[in-house]
Amino acid sequence: MTVDLSVHPPRSTALIVGAARETITYGQLDAAVSGAARAYTDRGFRRGDVVAVTAANAAEFVVDLLGAVHAGLIVAPMDPALPQAGTRQRLDLLGSLRHGGPGGLTDDDVMVMFTSGTTGIPKMVPWTRQAITASTATIARTYGLSAADSTVAAMPLFHGHGLIATLLTSLTVGGTVLLPAAGRFSAHTFRDDLAAAAATWYSAVPTIHRIALSTRDIRPGDTARATAALRFVRSCSAPLAPETAAGLESAFGVPVLPAYGMTEATHHVSGCTLADSADVRRRSVGTPAAATARIVDGEVWVTGPAIARGYLGDPALSSGTFVDGWLRTGDLGVIDASGNLSVTGRIKNIINCGGEKISPERVEQILAGCPGVAQAAVFPLPDPVYGERVGAAVVATPGIRLTTGELIAGCRGRLAKYEVPEHVSIVDALPLTAKGDIDRAALAHSSSNSQLSLSPTGAAVT
């Protein structure tokens, strides 16, 4: 198994489930997982078979997933909210997998994770038992996690972030995980969830942090009760704006620790620790622990025991991403003299304006620093002369009225002329991917089809 539940005291709490706050002990969970493993075998599944497990953040998902692994099966966690066509596509991809050969499964594989593909076809990443063990051990060591710690499953368990960082790491060290009643993060119950779990930490994407920060207490003292046991907050899977980190630290009274990871690295590559200074936390994602990182032509490359060997069923794509044991992340970054890694952008996000390369993340930071801006997203706009121009969409802080003229003026003194957004739209919300990242492709597509109501002068009609 990826997690040995039997090593923990059988009466210790493993899971807290739903609105009733039902507790499931390690002994009960171990018995349920063993029963699920027997059920898989009784149904005719054999070691090495691939099974898809679809469920929300619920006890049934945990039992089915760990039971399948215990039975020697290869598990593919899937999003229950996928449309039927998306589910069918993933099942067909899983059905095409074979053991052995280039791009095939091996006896060491225990999970297959789906990640977004640029062609619209999801990529399949194999996770081995050794890689999962290396990643969970690194996370536990980085944050000093133990059986005394408890958390809330704010991230979906069918994604690497929630599965590795929240669930499997907690069960590895003997900690406790609360599974929300909604089967997912809920802003309205999050503070109650933290309090019910006596949570010492939680991990989420910046979008969830922003939502948690903007949600007011339903009852006086909700935040104080929710954060009474909190030691730190972890942020991963997307860039964390300094303003969001500062707001969380002020509201929750604990350090916010940025981390860096991806599915191809079994989620975790590096993370700031409680020992890091506020300056290190503000400008970096910490020092890679079990992984080794280097910068090649501005791109972050990583290697280590948790790095996948390639994409299943796609040797050609693998050869361009996995090179001699190194993973080309596609992220731009720098490493300082102390070994701290700073991620500055995505290579594929770069906007090419007449040969000038523009980092949308840099422009977003400037926009996010303008008074009254809650969120900002930058994306390319097609241009017949320059190839691409800079487009932007911003969400205003509640109660604040923004003008695009003010936003553009705020950029002009801090950005090169070619970096200043050509068009700015003020919108109610930014589109997100299933992982909670800003969906730049959707913004670019919408703007190209005039769905953002952009004007050539940057004056948006909303």
TrEMBL record:
Gene3D superfamilies: 3.30.300.30, 3.40.50.980, N-terminal domain of ligase-like
GO biological process: fatty acid metabolic process
GO molecular function, one term: medium-chain fatty acid-CoA ligase activity
Keywords: Ligase
PROSITE patterns, alphabetized: AMP_BINDING (PS00455)
InterPro entries associated with the record: AMP-bd_C, AMP-bd_C_sf, AMP-binding_CS, AMP-dep_synth/lig_dom, ANL_N_sf
Domain (AMP-dependent synthetase/ligase) ranges: 9-91, 107-312
Domain AMP-binding enzyme C-terminal: 363-436
Domain of life assignment: Bacteria
Family: Belongs to the ATP-dependent AMP-binding enzyme family.
UniProt name for this protein: Putative fatty-acid-CoA ligase FadD7 (Fatty-acid-CoA synthetase) (Fatty-acid-CoA synthase) [Mycobacterium tuberculosis H37Rv]
Species lineage: Bacteria, Bacillati, Actinomycetota, Actinomycetes, Mycobacteriales
